[in-house]
Structure formats: C-alpha cells, structure tokens
C-alpha cells in the first residue's frame, strides 16, 4: 500500500513525528506503513519545507542522497 502525504495526497517520502512534552519534531524516511499514532506521512516537498512551531526543535533523520553535486559559484 502506498502511503500518501497528509497535506496534499501525493506519494509519501517521509514520516513526521512529534513529542509535545519535549517540544520536538523529527522526520524519518518512510520505509513502512505508518499506523495510527505513529506519525504522519509527508511527500518530499512538504518534508523539505517543514518548519516546527516557535520554540520547538526539528531533527531530520532522513537519509538524503543528491542526484547531482551542487554547483560551485565563483
């Protein structure tokens, strides 16, 4: 079963989880089906633009591999 983004319905690429007690949000790779209470699937675009609430921390645990090396600007 393909997980869809909780925001736009596109194909899921990451899982957003959070802890109210720790005021922390984290992103992990979507490797299996996300069950109720385990987080929210997000597409790559929404995961990349994720910003935590003011006073919270965001930790990105995703394993990202770039297809192209960044250009060097002289």
What does this protein look like?
The chain is mainly β and 74 residues long. The protein contains 1 helix and 4 strands. It has a 4-stranded mixed sheet. The model has no long low-confidence stretch (mean pLDDT 84).
Poorly predicted segments: none
Order of helices and strands: EEEHE
Number of strands: 4
* Strand order in the largest sheet: 3-1-2-4
Beta-strand percentage?
25-35%
Number of helical segments with 4 or more residues: 1
Mean pLDDT: 84
N-to-C CA distance: 46 Å
Structural class: mainly beta
> Main sheet, how many strands, which sense, barrel?
4 strands, mixed
Task: Summarize the entry for a quick read.
This protein has 74 residues and is mainly beta. The chain contains one helix and four strands.
Descriptors:
single chain, 74 residues, mainly beta, 4-stranded mixed β-sheet, 1 helix, 26% strand, globular
Topology:
Blueprint (H helix, E strand, L loop, with lengths): L13 E6 L4 E6 L10 E3 L1 H5 L8 E4 L14
